[in-house]
């Protein structure tokens, strides 16, 4: 039986809410002389807030009740949520489904009022979903299947015909418990090897292939590449690699789900605007996990830009990586990548001043 509807998670799947709020707990705990335990927090990914609040107060031995914790920290979350952006390829997929008349729902472990705060800040999203559900509208949140089964019921679609797209293990377990097909887009790259219970694992929505699920294929590639919502970040170049320069709050401007070969434009003080190809991946070295950005300037001597701070605007995507085979080899920037990027960057579809792809 083919897929006739799609059900999305929200936080970390469609929106980078987890990226913009990742240091909030750290800031909160400082006032109590406590330090964040990231191993525990990663395991709480996808948990409903009520349960997380109880666990946090207990784990950090806070001298407050879970209710007081929530009352103190939720206003901080509301401020950050307004800064959340769609993750790479999200608007593209939602628009594609909309254009082909395929219903899609939102099923989040957040309570409904918080879901609506996040959704309403994205133009056109609230109207695009056939159903929007929060965990307070069902008996049990994820990993219970209740949210997904209720979403399918409200769309009038059999559960076996639904495709779930999730970023957390909690959500993936819920989708499988609902007897639905599940695609995982891990938001915690260090744990991506634990997502094998999903039917399919991708690094970002740019890797998603609708035809694998009996859905209409994308037809929006332009000159062997894909125009994307621009990704802006600052960095410094040295010996063939870019080191991202974070803002004062330490937050990254590159989404965690950015994997693959991209291209775009570079601005720096001593040069005119340059063209660049980058290969972005995550590497595990000596027990640490960090982003690795290989870079190659087109028609420029790379050494001339060495050690300068540069501003990068990525506007196109060429390919992902077949990570199961040879990730290091696969992530190398090829002559073919450079040729595709150069041709594309001479066209209007990938110009520096082009508008972002249309919102929903």
TrEMBL record:
Pfam families for this protein? Flavokinase (PF01687), HAD_2 (PF13419)
Q: Does the keyword Isomerase apply?
A: no
Listed SUPFAM superfamilies: HAD-like, Riboflavin kinase-like
Q: Name one GO molecular function term.
A: sn-glycerol 3-phosphatase activity
GO annotation terms (biological process): glycerol biosynthetic process; riboflavin biosynthetic process
Q: Which domain of life is it from?
A: Eukaryota
Q: What is this protein called?
A: riboflavin kinase
Coiled-coil annotation reads none
Spell out the InterPro entries in the cross-references: HAD-like_sf (IPR036412), HAD-SF_hydro_IA (IPR006439), HAD_2 (IPR041492), HAD_sf (IPR023214), PGP-like_dom2 (IPR023198), Riboflavin_kinase_bac/euk (IPR015865), Riboflavin_kinase_dom_sf (IPR023465)
Q: Where is the organism placed in the taxonomic lineage, from the top?
A: Eukaryota, Viridiplantae, Streptophyta, Embryophyta, Tracheophyta
Give the Riboflavin kinase domain ranges.
258-322
Q: Which UniProt keywords apply?
A: ATP-binding, Flavoprotein, FMN, Nucleotide-binding, Transferase
Q: Does the keyword Transcription regulation apply?
A: no
What EC number(s) would the UniProt record show? Answer: 2.7.1.26
Q: In which pathway does it act?
A: Cofactor biosynthesis; FMN biosynthesis; FMN from riboflavin (ATP route): step 1/1
Q: Which PANTHER family match?
A: 2-DEOXYGLUCOSE-6-PHOSPHATE PHOSPHATASE 2 (PTHR18901), OS01G0757900 PROTEIN (PTHR18901:SF44)
């Amino acid at each position: 039986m083919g897929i006739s509807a799609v059900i999305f998670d929200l936080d970390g799947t469609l929106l980078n809410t987890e990226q913009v709020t990742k240091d909030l707990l750290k800031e909160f705990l400082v006032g109590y002389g406590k330090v964040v335990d990231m191993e525990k927090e990663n395991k709480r990914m996808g948990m409903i807030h009520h349960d997380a609040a109880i666990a946090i107060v207990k784990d950090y031995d806070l001298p407050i009740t879970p209710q007081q914790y929530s009352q103190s920290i939720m206003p901080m979350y509301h401020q950050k949520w307004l800064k959340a952006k769609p993750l790479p390829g999200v608007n593209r997929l939602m628009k594609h489904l909309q254009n082909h008349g395929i219903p899609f729902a939102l099923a989040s472990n957040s309570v409904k009022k918080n879901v609506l705060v996040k959704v309403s800040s994205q133009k056109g999203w609230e109207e695009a979903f056939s159903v929007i559900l929060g965990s307070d509208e069902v008996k049990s949140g994820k990993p219970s299947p209740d949210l997904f089964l209720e979403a399918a019921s409200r769309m009038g679609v059999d559960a076996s015909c639904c495709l779930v797209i999730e970023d957390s293990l909690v959500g993936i377990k819920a989708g499988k418990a609902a007897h639905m097909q599940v695609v995982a887009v891990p938001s915690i790259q260090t744990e991506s090897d634990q997502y094998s219970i999903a039917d399919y694992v991708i690094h970002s929505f740019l890797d998603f292939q609708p035809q694998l699920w009996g859905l209409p294929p994308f037809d929006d590639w332009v000159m062997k590449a894909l125009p994307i919502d621009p990704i802006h970040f600052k960095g410094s170049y040295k010996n063939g690699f870019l080191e991202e320069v974070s803002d004062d709050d330490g937050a990254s401007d590159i989404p965690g789900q950015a994997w693959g070969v991209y291209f775009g434009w570079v601005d720096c003080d001593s040069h005119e605007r340059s063209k660049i190809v980058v290969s972005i991946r995550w590497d595990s070295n000596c027990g640490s996990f960090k982003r690795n950005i290989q870079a190659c300037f087109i028609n420029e001597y790379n050494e001339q830009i060495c050690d300068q701070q540069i501003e990068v605007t990525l506007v196109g995507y060429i390919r992902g990586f077949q990570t199961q085979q040879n990730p290091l080899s696969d992530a190398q920037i090829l002559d073919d990548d450079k040729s595709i990027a150069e041709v594309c960057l001479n066209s209007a579809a990938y110009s520096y001043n082009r508008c972002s792809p249309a919102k929903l």
